[in-house]
Write a structure and sequence with these properties.
By secondary structure, this protein is of the alpha/beta class. Helix content is 36%, strand content 15%. The longest helix is centred in the C-terminal third of the chain and has 19 residues. The protein binds ligand T4K.
């Protein structure tokens, strides 16, 4: 039976009030300056420096290009190895491979699904140049251990921070960890610029390369010294970011209420494992993943997914398949080498999560999960 709830999707973009956005873009009309690091671009960049508590932020057309160009900016030798997680959105892996580098997949921690730091050192070879972990679902990686390993072996650390906008660990902004942290501001994220992304970094020389690479490698009108591409955030996207940033605290408070309601409802269901907020983390409530143990719950993840869907509730299998099991990589890799990531990918389901999600709908979703019928 499809009712009022027939259009519930896994997420829904947060929008500022329409008038506020119109006000923000008026000056773009007046100036006729639409892109190429205009006034809105610079304004958002400055606001994000404050928000992230960092000195340097480079804006991009999306999170993927922030990651891909960051890797390019380091100028690693072709064929070098990057230790990363297969438990992520495919963008992470593609960004490495599209730079002519080899991803080396490390298994994950079964509690928070981030890279298992105890397994990183065994994967280091004389070709390893970097570690590229992901703060998946907004769960923060073991940043201290990762930095210790990187320092010991002379490796760069590039965080895929796509899910962790606005978070803090031990009071420190998540954007401050590693050599670079790359964020996504896609429409589906807790903070969106429609499409967009950013790289936060400390090395100013790296920043100059990033700035040039996102604009075709142009250094000045007569000097092109890098093989760049076009990955600049335009003025309309920057304006959306300026507006959404004003409402960010409100966004997080509403998400927190949704998260708490899920927790209340699902806490004691045998065979359903919930994602716990880590100690010392100021969380952003980006996703609500559950992991189904079919032998205890009595239904598989796929059966639960279909049951929800048949009742108008769209959940998603983020992240299935894992990168090393995807068609484009599975000939080169064996997903059995990362058994924990593989197992979780077969059992995970991310439930609808967004700030405007009505608590009544959350109750309905939870009731389906609890009763296994509608
Ligand atoms: N690294 C990680 C770890 C990532 O998760 C991502 C992106 C990236 C890097 C790359 O960042 P970006 O280059 O994308 O900035 C979505 C997003 O497109 C993607 O940004 C995100 N991760 C990934 C986890 O999810 P799809 O293919 O699942 O999106 P789609 O179109 O099925 O949308 C999901 C739901 O979102 C829809 O059911 C409804 C809602 N939605 C979607 C759009 C497009 C909206 O409410 N508004 C919208 O405009 O990939």
């Amino acid at each position: 039976m499809i009712s009022k709830v027939d259009k519930i999707l896994v997420t829904r973009s947060s929008m500022p009030p329409m008038e506020e956005y119109f006000d923000e873009i008026k000056s773009i009309w007046e100036s006729h300056w639409l892109t190429n690091m205009g006034i809105k671009h610079v304004e958002l960049q400055n606001e994000l420096k404050r928000k992230f508590d960092v000195d340097n932020v480079e804006l991009f057309t999306n999170g993927h290009m922030a990651l891909e160009m960051t890797i390019q900016a380091f100028g690693f030798e072709e064929g070098s190895e990057v230790i990363t997680t297969p438990y992520t959105f495919i963008s992470t892996t593609h960004a490495i491979v599209r730079n002519g580098l080899k991803p080396v997949f490390c298994d994950i921690n079964p509690e928070n699904y981030t890279i298992d730091v105890d397994k990183i050192e065994d994967l280091i070879t004389d070709k390893t140049v970097a570690i590229l972990p992901v703060h998946v679902y907004g769960n923060i990686c073991d940043v201290e251990r990762i930095q210790q390993i990187a320092d010991k072996h002379g490796l760069k650390v590039i965080y895929d921070a796509a899910h962790s906008f606005g978070e803090k660990y031990n009071g420190k902004s998540v954007a401050q960890f590693g050599d670079v942290s790359c964020f996504s501001f896609h429409a589906t994220k807790v903070f969106n610029t429609i499409e967009g992304g950013a790289a936060c970094y400390s090395d100013r020389a790296l920043g100059t390369r990033l700035y040039q690479l996102k604009n075709f490698g142009i250094a000045d009108e007569e000097t092109i010294n890098g093989i760049g591409a076009n990955a600049k955030m335009n003025e309309f996207c920057a304006a959306m970011g300026i507006c959404n940033l004003r409402h960010f605290d409100e966004e997080i408070a509403k998400r927190k209420a949704v998260y708490s309601r899920y927790l209340e409802n699902l806490e004691d269901i045998p065979g359903i494992k919930l994602n716990r907020i880590q100690r010392d983390v100021k969380y952003n409530y980006a996703y609500f993943p559950i992991v189904v143990d079919p032998s205890v719950y009595g239904k598989t993840r796929d059966e639960l997914h279909d049951l929800l869907l048949n009742n108008g509730m769209g959940s998603r299998k983020y992240f299935y398949p894992i990168s090393n099991a995807c068609d484009c990589y599975s000939k080169e890799y064996d997903a059995e080498d990362t058994p924990i990531a593989l197992s979780i990918s077969h059992n995970v389901l991310t439930l609808p999560m967004y700030s405007d999600l009505e608590l009544e709908i959350v109750d309905k979703i939870c009731n389906i999960i609890r009763t296994k019928c509608f």
